[in-house]
Queue: 2 jobs
Job 1
Amino acid sequence: MTETLNKPEGVDADYYSVGAPIADTKAPAGPIENKWTLRKFDASLVNPANRRKLSVIIVGTGLAGAAAGATLGEAGYHVKSFCFQDSPRRAHSIAAQGGINAAKNYKEDGDSIYRLFYDTVKGGDYRARETNVYRLAEVSANIIDQCVAQGVPFAREYGGLLDNRSFGGVQVSRTFYARGQTGQQLLIGAYQALERQIAAGTVEMYARHEMLELIVADGQARGIIARNLVTGEIETHLADAVVLASGGYGNVFFLSTNAMGSNVTANWRAHRKGAYFGNPCYTQIHPTCIPVSGDHQSKLTLMSESLRNDGRIWVPKRKEDCEKDPRQIPEEDRDYYLERIYPAFGNLVPRDIASRQAKNMCDEGRGVGPMVGDFRRGVYLDFADAIARLGKPAVEAKYGNLFDMYARITGENPYETPMRIYPAVHYTMGGLWVDYDLQSSIPGLFVTGEANFSDHGANRLGASALMQGLADGYFVLPNTIRDYLAKGPYPTLDENDPSVAEARTSVEDRTRRLLAINGERSVDSFHKELGHIMWEYCGMERTETGLMKAIDLIRSLRAEFWRNVRVLGAADTLNQSLEKAGRVADFLELGELMCIDALHRRESCGGHFRAESQTEDGEALRHDDEFLYVAAWEYAGGSGEGEMGAPVLHKEDLAYEFIQLKQRSYK
Amino acid sequence: MNLTLKIWRQDGPTARGELVTYQVPDISPDMSFLEMLDVLNERLNAEGKEPVAFDSDCREGICGMCGLMISGDAHGPEKTTTCQLHMRSFKDGETITIEPWRATAFPVLRDLVVDRTAFDRIIQAGGFISANTGAAPKAEAILVPKENADRAFMAAECIGCGACVAACPNASGMLFMGAKVTHLGELPQGQPERAQRVAAMVATHDAEGFGGCTNIGECSHACPKGIPLDVISQLNADMRKAKSGRL
Ligand SMILES: Cc1cc2nc3c(=O)[nH]c(=O)nc-3n(C[C@H](O)[C@H](O)[C@H](O)COP(=O)(O)OP(=O)(O)OC[C@H]3O[C@@H](n4cnc5c(N)ncnc54)[C@H](O)[C@@H]3O)c2cc1C
Ligand code: FES
């Protein structure tokens, strides 16, 4: 809990206070190569005969959750797994396309654990914890071994060896892939391992169940309250420990590349119960997505960034040309702006830079495609040169499936007319704060995968989220959670214990309230409005005044939500409006915290670009002297539904012992 | 575009359902089919009527969560998932009938939402390779010919949406099962359990109430991933060999 409370200086004083610093206490001292081995050795063991008396709840069946469920089940623990989809196989991990990194060095191109570690820390713009990242690189090779043993059909060469490709701007080929469906194949592997444990009786599966509250008794996480999404029944589930593997929160922006159901509720409910939220403002915006086509848009589709290897990005030089057929615009009237501004890297600048420049062009009124609000939101990605140079068959061989997908969604033929692309929210680096053991600030609550904040700093490299999810699930968590479980079984908790009753009642009350408001606006209309606010002020470029404005707007939107939302139907049936309402209510609180975090971090780093902190030529400028820390936010309570107090900031200083800090440059 | 929709509405698993007609004006051809239903739901909500329940998640054609019978075709007129179907595939003024998957093994839960957990139980019966975490040999230790790896991948592309069952007059799950048996059977890692896998999966399939295959081929035709019919031949071959102890 909070020991010292200080008011920060200036405008910040109105938004948050500063509490005691925090630190990870679990990573052992000594050389970085030895830390994980030492930690595994020091973590207590649980006698196989005792394991079935110990129970673990896992919320989420994506890579992080399914891998952990299967592994803990195999070890003999009693696992209860939850997901809101109808089957664990449908978790959002299924949608990942590009690949998964591993330091196998199959290509003899100089890769190593250390290089993967280094690339990840640098890619994260020096805002990740070294110890965690090193371990991630260390276990990466085991992941590939595990997946191959399960029957994951990775791409292979003619000789039967596994194939690799280079991905995300790094100089080595360390990415394993299964065509454009790597996430699907990895998840099916983990899903099958999980189903095998369900059959063996070690894992109980609760699909179409949504966690709506965390149970904390005597300061320890001891269970969850979940709603059965088919019957509406509110259920209590108790255990010795709880794991959240509930994914990222990109849908706070309404439009993102995330699945429709991806949400922050599990994390947010835990945050309200005392789990610190790490770096909530770190969001990744991916430059090559299919643009919004109108107000009806429900989600955005990512197209692999490999397209930038051969496509040239441009907008018309003059606003008047923006409505023209692009093929009628002569070469001299086109602005290949990335090639112009970044002659050395051209169209291959990192994701955040490519995204921000596309926004700048559209803000100037030079965007293309249909009007969305007051602007056209799109830039051209043109393959005419590539087709002339390589021939259509070669371009088709490389990008055929992406071109087909584009044609299906837009109804346009990208071989004939340039594609239109625009950036979209893709991944959230922020998440619940965890220590080296992946334990949150609530004892007994562990957080894995995209749901935690741990490995990617302020920006994630391509193909490393899949790696992290499986590293956490197969190899890290099963080794660290045993140290906690070894002290159990914890005292039996009665369903009537005040901590359980309180959690349950609060869920029931909230459900009742949502259904009783019966106002005039739909849940989606609130979600869309929140998304607009977040995208405008807490998206690719953030400013002090913008963020302050956003916080005001979010507060009044949240107040209106609790007065004026209309959720029809009943509590005791399958009710998708009710499901959405609960998720949006939590996004409306998270959005404010993200803006406060973005406001307080007066530097630019990774995906977080503060307009006030840039170099003379408009590049991101970090302030390591002031901001070399993880911001871990403590929830400060609020009196009524939807009311939030000023959160408390706990800083975890980042010490770079093994890697030297540098400023990025791509000119 | 202006459309007439006839949508299956059913309050719960045991309630009686019926087709209800809705007029939806002003639909853009650029909308996806599910966005068109979103528009309808927003309007119903505004009118104080309960929205239509339907499943979707990724809306990218990969999670397998969506799936509607659209004027008699599983996933509609194109070879894709319902979420990747766009309104430009329909004509202005068209009447579209929208129903849930219909199969004994997939009971309706509400409106267009069905219970497909029978598929999970088929996988539980044997649709896996037993490889405990940490026990795996080095990935490079076993070579897999590219041909087998590619065929395994092709079969592993199945998204478990259930369109094959919905399209089959016998409501058979053989394409789904054949895809899994082929995926794992093409790989060296899948050999040790090959015989028991196929036997256990088929037994569960039958017990769940899926029908048998009579080689009609609607399943493969409806499959958004184009899983070919020959995975069923593979399934049958494995089954015969398993029975005669030759696997
Ligand atoms: C389009 C796209 C492409 C991508 N491509 C790549 C790539 O090529 N390489 C790469 O490394 N990364 C990629 N990523 C990122 C990567 O896919 C994700 O970060 C990662 O899969 C997240 O895995 P996870 O296990 O943490 O969570 P998820 O897979 O999101 O799973 C979350 C789980 O939690 C459950 N859940 C959530 N809340 C609740 C609740 N309240 N109650 C019950 N259950 C709940 C869900 O049902 C689900 O089972 C991509 C992401 C997207 C969007
Ligand atoms: S919603 Fe995922 S396949 Fe259609």
Job 2
Amino acid sequence: MNREIICINCPLGCRLEVTIEEGKVAKVTGNTCGKGVEYAQTECLNPTRTVTTTVSIKNTLYALLPVRTSKPIPKDLVTKCVQYLRRIEVKAPVRTGEIIVENILGTEADIIATKNLEAL
Amino acid sequence: MVGYDIVVIGSGPAGLAAAASAYKEGVKSILIIERDRELGGILQQCIHNGFGLFYFTQDLTGPEYATRFIEKVKENGISYKLNTMVLDITSERKIIAINKEEGLLEIQAKAVILAMGCRERTRGSINISGTRPAGIFTAGMAQRFVNMEGYMPGKEVVILGSGDIGLIMARRLTLEGANVKMVLELLPYSSGLTRNIVQCLQDYNIPLYFNHTITKIYGRDRVTGISFAEVDIKDKRPIAETEKEVACDTLLLAVGLIPENELSKKAGIEIDPITNGPVVNDRMETSVEGIFASGNVVHVHDLVDNVSKESEVAGRNAAKYVLSHKKFPSIKVKTVAGHGVLYVVPQIIHPQKMEEEITLYLRVKDIFKDQRLMITIGTEQNPKPIHSIKRLIMAPGEMQSINLKREQILKGIHVNDAAGIDTGLKLTVYIEAKGERKDE
Ligand SMILES: Cc1cc2nc3c(=O)[nH]c(=O)nc-3n(C[C@H](O)[C@H](O)[C@H](O)COP(=O)(O)OP(=O)(O)OC[C@H]3O[C@@H](n4cnc5c(N)ncnc54)[C@H](O)[C@@H]3O)c2cc1C
Ligand code: SF4
């Protein structure tokens, strides 16, 4: 199987032609440097993304608290993660780095607050 | 009238970094004035990650990046006023501001740092024909609604402009349940990061059309749709035969930012017609003595890391200005954008009193692959090369920076040249025309 992807590691944005055989990256062309090969490996076999979104918060200046995953999670869980967090509600005060949800969707990543919000 | 050594206008990353570095330099009487209800500026609504990769070598979200500087300001006990709008500044550094509790305030500052950031271009500045219905937002406005206030601007969305803000909002609205139908870009390329094109559009199968624009907006009370068309690459005029309609209830305009300089103009500060920000020297001082500026108010930055760095220069030098009123003369060198370069900031360098090293920031006019940035110094007739750097890629959307040491600049000029006088010396940055260099 062949896939065309764009390397995101630097502004050059090389178009990589990736050949996948038996669940392994067999060949990469189009890359200008070695990082492109590494990127092709993870992006084709195990793509992950850091998720940034919000949860509801009561008792403060704003209706929403910004949050993120403590590490990247599998790409196909991103939408589910955001949907799950839409139902979460916390109460101020909250500090940056505070864990809001542990081990989100079994990914071993935590959801952490990215902002200090004081109680009113 | 109250007085402070330094007054900083705006509390985005520029204002916060400038205040913290002025404090570190020894000035303790500092006031930050912010019109919003919290410190941090635009970063507070940029909840995505990608900030701080250079400054902290960490991948932070906007609020996390802001928090680090806010904590520094608070630890130092630097005073600030929120919900306070600066209305006027004079060239004598008198500031008029207003807030609900105190009414009209008059503040005298020994030095002022302008850090008011940018505002977004609106429909008025781009000209689309049609009705004036609800449902048209600037991308930043929509970002604030979705990320801070908690309401969605609409369900069926078209985005005009493929800069980072447009791309980030395409993903954000999709994740929040909207159907982002397309992103239209007038130019043949995006000014956004490749990472954002991949992770914000391709991940969600949102089409991006280059060389396209919106030709009409439909709807009476609320937007019901738009027409869009391909444009002629040369004159950017829509090609009538390619016009198509698409239904939508929301249009986001992500068509660029303009430095916020109403106040600067009132203070009589010279504005650069290309950057739309104040003309500044190597210490980030404007044409009015004692008034400094940094961040997006000077020129639009794509990376906040550069904003912080540039603002530390402004803060440090504002402090030096307050602490020692010593004036020593220096030759004045103007920076010039040569072939392929749109602008260079700072616009003026004083080689004999500049810091050990300065950073020149510039933007190129087109996409250049595997080319050299050249720097010369001297008179128009006799420019001497002092530095050159090879870059694999340079694009208009990506600000370039070059560090130059004082010795490098001094080497190119005769220090005895009449001090303090504009000697016509120029520091030119340009892209080497292909084939010009034979030794490689
Ligand atoms: C939507 C968006 C997304 C971005 N994404 C990224 C990214 O992914 N990575 C990255 O590195 N950079 C990003 N940037 C760029 C970065 O955020 C900016 O370069 C940076 O915030 C500019 O800082 P600033 O302090 O100059 O301006 P701002 O953050 O805009 O701060 C200016 C402050 O001045 C205040 N002010 C203005 N006028 C007055 C007045 N008259 N009186 C009192 N206060 C006043 C404003 O309220 C505001 O708080 C993004 C920018 C935007 C807009
Ligand atoms: S392959 Fe190397 S040069 Fe090409 S985009 Fe990736 S990191 Fe940049």
